[in-house]
Amino acid sequence: MQKMLYNKSRKDFNIKGVEKMPKKEVFIEKEFADRLREIADSEKISEEEVIQKAIKEYIEDYNAEKNDPLLNLIGIADEEDGEDENGSENTDHNLYGGEKDE
Question: How does pLDDT run across 11-26, given as a tens digit for each residue?
Fold first, then answer.
């Protein structure tokens, strides 16, 4: 088991051989705290590990959505003047940036 050191002046933990992890304190609703404890108990891991896994998964999903070219197409056909409500009139312009049909 790796030795964990606590640096009081920096308020972060240092596990020997592992990058320093900043300490974050948050308040959560009681029902989330209760559910967190249940999940940790059932998985036989610490609450901290449950939180770390949840944050990692959230950030990975967030990044995947931001970089998904298909999701970036949502709303591309929106017209400011409301003329082309379904995006069918100026397809080339909406998708490729070409000139608008007249």
Answer: 555 556 667 778 889 9
